[in-house]
Amino acid sequence: MDHARAPHHFGLRDGAAAESHQLNPTCGDEVTVQLHVNAAGDRVESISWEGHGCAISQASASLLSDLVVDLAAADLTHRIGEFREMMRSRGAIEGDEELLGDAVVLGGASRYVARVKCAMLSWVAVEDALAKLPQIA
């Protein structure tokens, strides 16, 4: 709940290398994610984001934004895959805290199909933005 009330890395910034806007038409949650890469263009330094929706979607975006700091695209893609697997498990798989950090707390939402889309929204946005970065993808 802390991440939903006081989200980390909230607010879009100038200088983004890629951006993605995603909408969950089922509930109206939406998010815009920007990727910021290092000068060499081989690592994602950070993300900035804005959005609105339920506490799960907002907390998920905030938790994800904490994980992105200075990651190669392949590492970030791997973490997105691990999160997706946890969210599709319907509670059967506990997330790897070493890879997902505090985002493992969202594993409980995987038992509620309608909430999986809320939790996945920002992760899908980052995945889409990564695809727009051919130099590091």
From TrEMBL:
Residues 1-118 form the NIF system FeS cluster assembly NifU N-terminal domain. This is SUF system NifU family Fe-S cluster assembly protein. It comes from the Bacteria. SUPFAM superfamilies: SufE/NifU. It comes from Gryllotalpicola protaetiae. GO terms for molecular function: iron ion binding; iron-sulfur cluster binding. GO terms for biological process: iron-sulfur cluster assembly. Pfam families: NifU_N (PF01592).
